[in-house]
Write a structure and sequence with these properties.
Distance between the termini: 77 Å
Number of helices: 22
Mean pLDDT: 94
Largest sheet: 5 strands, mixed
Strand order of the largest sheet: 12-11-15-13-14
Length: 568
């Protein structure tokens, strides 16, 4: 295929004209075969599916009748590889290369391949259309919806859906102060974990002294079980770029950075392509859209350290130093990267910005709960029927997420707990299943939002073992700079290991609580201060399990191989 000639856009009028020409050139009634090309589906064999579709279309000379589009993750990872036939939105799940000839034949004949449809495990009924699958029905997909409509390597797809209209509005119809006020009014809180009000952070950075300022996109997503940021970057990288450019204009920055996890190869590839396309179209670089605003972005690959997800450690790594955190008495919005005012938000936060600018703070703030506006994407995994990405309004209950969207617990087993927020999050018991999931409610019960991981556990899960797993992870990932974190995690790990091996003794629980208090009060960064959360919530809600391990040398879940010889 010949490379399409690219013309630099020098005005809002040229952007609008290009958008209209793209829409006009497309036939909305044309059959489109949409295949998920995300990391998850590729691991399940999606590339063979893609190759088979290409062969069928080429050999049958069907290019005018069928359009093949490779997209990012639509969320239903449990049932990949996924194929959707549009505009009808017929969903085929767990598709294999050998199924493709039958699918193409069915499309041409106006038929459906029944055996590849999703079957509702509760009713046994086959479901034809994507939007009728229970996994999708209860979601509110403000950010993920375009993942199924966009080839992430084709900027024209993003433009056809209104991409960069928010940037146009921000540059030509709003002042930086108005943009910041709109973000403040929306109620958007940072999706990286702490939940700090985004607009307030932007305002502080804009008002900080200094002519040179930086904006940073944190894509160092290291939590076990989390893949929200990866999927957004893989599926819709232009939405993140647009958000970062708007933020830079509002703050007064002309240089930005994306700090991306080293293992995110596909996300890095798609982001790099998106940046090149944005530059070619005059949407990134010098004199963006003829506005006089200059802004460039550099990509830095992470060094493989979990602690580099912490803001000051990330900035140290960007500077080429060891990724170690510093004390927070000097805020990074005043003295961050290269000792200059710096604004850091994570991928999901930046992706919300174009929505807020384009549709308005009033529209956005109607979604979510009183103190947590908008939606949140969760990586739903563990002992649950429907694993994958789910996007729900803030304030939806844990029960609705796990049972209405996640499909409940497999094998007829009983729900025991959900761990949210990664290694620094907490374990939420069955008694709190009706808890509204938002920043404030999670904090009240000892957990956090974190980067969006939600790991579901059933009755066969040992809560002592779960705490040991997360503590061991953080012990390995600690930078070792401060004594409470370095030595405290090591000692907690030793005690938990003894308990799971039948060597626990009276006083261990109290010692764990004292050590946890020391970490919370004395650690230099959130890795150490949040590390005890899984342990403390397990002790808070499942203390009897710890006592059974110590006093009775018994694991109620049957997961630990305890020493049956009485310890004297």
């Amino acid at each position: 295929m010949a490379k399409r000639k690219t013309s630099r856009l020098n005005s809002p009028q040229e952007l609008d004209a290009l958008r209209k020409s793209i829409i006009k050139s497309r036939d909305p009634s044309q059959t489109r075969i949409v295949v998920c090309g995300s990391t998850g589906c590729l691991a399940l064999g999606a590339q063979r599916v893609i190759n088979a579709f290409r062969r069928e279309i080429e050999e049958g000379r069907l290019e005018k009748r069928l359009a093949l589009r490779i997209t990012g993750c639509p969320g239903f990872c449990e049932k990949g590889p996924l194929v959707v036939i549009k505009p009808e939105n017929i969903l085929y799940q767990q598709v294999r290369g050998e199924d493709i000839a039958e699918i193409v034949s069915a499309i041409l004949k106006g038929k459906i391949v029944d055996r590849l449809l999703y079957t509702d495990p509760n009713t046994g009924k086959k479901i034809t259309y994507e939007n009728e699958v229970p996994f999708y029905k209860k979601q509110k997909r403000l950010l993920l919806s375009d993942n199924s409509n966009i080839d992430p390597t084709e900027i024209r797809d993003y433009l056809a859906l209104g991409g960069y209209a928010a940037l146009n509005q921000a540059l030509f119809k709003m002042s930086p102060e108005q943009i910041i006020e709109e973000v403040k009014k929306s109620g958007l809180r940072g999706r990286g974990g702490a939940g700090f009000p985004t607009g307030v952070k932007w305002e502080s950075c804009r008002q900080a002294h200094g002519d040179t300022k930086y904006v940073i996109c944190n894509a160092e997503e290291g939590d076990p079980g989390a893949f929200v940021d990866r999927s957004l970057l893989e599926g819709n990288p232009h939405s993140i770029l647009e958000g970062v450019i708007i933020g830079a204009y509002a703050i007064g920055a002309h240089q930005g950075y994306v700090y991306i996890r080293n293992e995110y190869h596909l996300a890095l590839q798609n982001l790099t392509i998106a940046m090149k396309q944005a530059e070619e179209h005059g949407l990134l670089g010098e004199n963006i859209l003829g506005s006089g605003f200059d802004f460039n972005i550099k990509i830095n690959r992470g060094g493989g350290a979990y602690v580099c997800g912490e803001s000051t450690a990330l900035m140290a790594s960007l500077e080429g130093r060891v990724g170690e955190p510093r004390a927070k008495y000097v805020h990074t919005v005043e003295r961050g990267l290269y000792d200059k005012p710096s604004n850091l938000n994570n991928v999901e936060t930046w992706a919300n910005i174009p929505l807020i600018i384009k549709k308005g703070a009033d529209w956005y703030s109607k979604v979510g709960s009183e103190g947590s506006k908008g939606t949140k994407i969760f990586s739903l995994s563990g002992r649950i029927n429907n694993t994958g990405l789910v996007e729900v309004p803030m304030g939806m209950t844990l029960r609705e997420i796990i049972y209405k969207i996640g499909g409940g617990i497999p094998g007829g087993k009983k729900f025991k707990a959900a761990q949210t927020g990664g290694p620094g999050g907490g374990c939420i018991p069955e008694s709190l299943l009706d808890l509204p999931v938002d920043f404030d409610q999670l904090t009240k019960v000892g957990s956090v939002m974190g980067s969006g991981s939600m790991i579901v556990m059933d009755e066969s899960t040992c809560m002592v073992d779960i705490a040991k797993y997360f503590i061991n992870f953080l012990e390995r990932e600690s930078c070792g700079k401060c004594v409470p974190c370095r030595e405290g995690l090591k000692r907690i790990s030793q005690i938990l290991t003894d308990i799971t091996e039948g060597k626990g003794k009276d006083g261990d629980i109290e010692l764990l609580e004292r050590l946890s208090a020391t970490l919370i009060d004395s650690s230099l960064c959130a890795l150490g201060s949040a590390a005890p959360n899984p342990l403390l919530t397990a002790l808070r809600y499942f203390r009897d399990e710890y006592e059974a391990h110590i006093r009775d040398k018994r694991c109620p879940a049957g997961a630990c191989q305890l020493n049956t010889i009485k310890i004297i």
